[in-house]
Amino acid sequence: FGIQSIPSLLFVPVDEQPQMAMGALPKATFEKAISDVLKVEKPIVV
CA triplet 46, 40, 28: central angle to 5 degrees? Predict the structure, then answer.
């Protein structure tokens, strides 16, 4: 998968190509990647 840095996250959507996020990224960036790549929304906690 070409991992070159730690931490590395590999997103593998069911019907699309895998995508990778490398390095220490802000929480908001990870949440956006999960939403955009995996099409999963952040749950609403009450």
Answer: 75
pLDDT tens for the chain, 46 residues: list them. 677 778 888 888 888 888 888 888 899 988 888 888 888 888 888 8
Among 23, 29, 17, 30, CA closest to 3:
23
pTM check: above 0.70: no
Q: Give per-residue burial for 15-44: e unless 16+ CB within 10 Å, then b.
A: eeeeebbeeeeeeeeeeebbeebeeeeeee
If you search the block for the tokens 């929304």, which residue do you land on? Answer: 41
